[in-house]
C-alpha cells in the first residue's frame, strides 16, 4: 500500500449507507489501484469528512429496525483498523468540522444540532436548529459561522461565538439570519474561499441552486434546472459550478456573480451537460486530476474538465456511494514513515451529554446508568495512547448486533430518566417559586410582625405602656 504513495498523490475515499459490513474503500486516484479497505461503516450523505488530513470521521445510522441507533466513528489514517466509537444521544446525519480541527458539528434527524470539542470530546452545545431533519452543515472559511440546511428547505446561519458560550448550557445560540427561498430539501452547501469569501451556494431538490451573501443573508442569484439537484461542487478556481442531478446528469455553469444586486435574477445561459451515470448523482469532488462523480448506479467517474471526457472509472459493486472525499495518500503512511509534526491532533470519545465545565480536561467517567459493572470501573485519560487503544479494543469486542441493540435500549432508558429528572426539577422550581411568593406576600401584609429583636422590644413596650402612663397597678387584698 505504501510503495507508491509519493508526495502530492491523491487518494479517493468512498463509503455507502447500505450496510455496516461494506465499510470504506480507498483507491489511488491516478492509477485506480485499491489501497485500503476499512471495515464497519455505513454513513449517510454528508456524514463523512477528513479531519486535518489525519483522521476520518463518519456518522453511522443503523437500519436494523432501530430509529435511535447511531454512532460517530473516528479512524486514525495512519492506523485505521480500530476506530474510536462514540454514541450520541440520537442518530447524527451530517457532519462538519472547523478548518483547524478543533470543533465538530453534527445534525440529527430530529432537527437538533450538536457541537463538540474534538480534543476533549466535550459536548459544548445542543440546540433545536430546524423543525425537520438536518441534511447539510458547513463552517465558513474563517470558522466564525455555522450554516445548516434542512429537509424543510430552510437555511440558517449561526454565530460560532454564541455556540461556544458554555456559561448557560440551555441558552439558545445567536441566529444571524435564515432563508426559506428553497421549496424543498437542501442537498448541498458550498462556501467560496477567494476574495468573496462570504459567498454561499446552496442546492435543493426543487431544481435550483442559489447564491447568497451569507453574512447579510442577501440572495444574489438563482440558477434553475429541469430536475432536482442532489450534489454540488466548485472547481478549484471557483469559476465553474458543477451540479449533479437526480437523473444522473451533471450541469456545468459559470459562477459569474459579478456585481449583481437583483435578488430575482435567474441565470439563463445554457450549461454544459455531462452524461454517463444511469442513477442519481450522490456526491461530487475535485482532485488534482479532475472532477470525480459518484452515483447510485455504483460507479465513480473521473472527468477531464477541459475536454469533458471520462479519464477513469471505478466500480463500487458493494453499493451506491453516499459519501466521497479526496485525501493525500501521504496521510495513510504510518507516523514512523513520515515526518512527525508538532501540531499532531488529539481526539477523544465524544460526550453523550454535556459535562460540568470544571470537569477534568481530557478525561471522562462513563455514566453509571448506561454502563455495565465492568465499564463503570473504567476511567480513561484519552491523551494516553495505551488507554485509548485498550478502550477501542473493548468497543471492538462489543460491536455485535446484540451489543448495539443493548446500547440503543440503554440510550432510550437514559432519555426517559433525563425526562423524569427534568420534570422533577421543574416541580421543585415551581414549589420554590410558590414559597418565595408566599414569603413576599407575608412581608408586604405584615411588615411589623416579623420576629426580630426590635419587634420583640416594641411588643414589650406596648404591654408595659399602662404603667408608663402613670396608671396604678391594682393592689391585691391580703
From TrEMBL:
InterPro entries tied to this protein: WD40/YVTN_repeat-like_dom_sf (IPR015943), WD40_PAC1 (IPR020472), WD40_repeat_CS (IPR019775), WD40_repeat_dom_sf (IPR036322), WD40_rpt (IPR001680), WDR18/Ipi3/RID3 (IPR045227)
Give Gene Ontology CC terms: nuclear pre-replicative complex; rixosome complex
What keywords appear on the UniProt entry? Repeat, WD repeat
Which SUPFAM superfamilies does the entry link to?
WD40 repeat-like
Record protein name field: Uncharacterized protein
Mind listing the GO biological process terms from this record?
DNA-templated DNA replication; rRNA processing
| WD repeat boundaries on the chain | 127-160, 179-222, 274-305
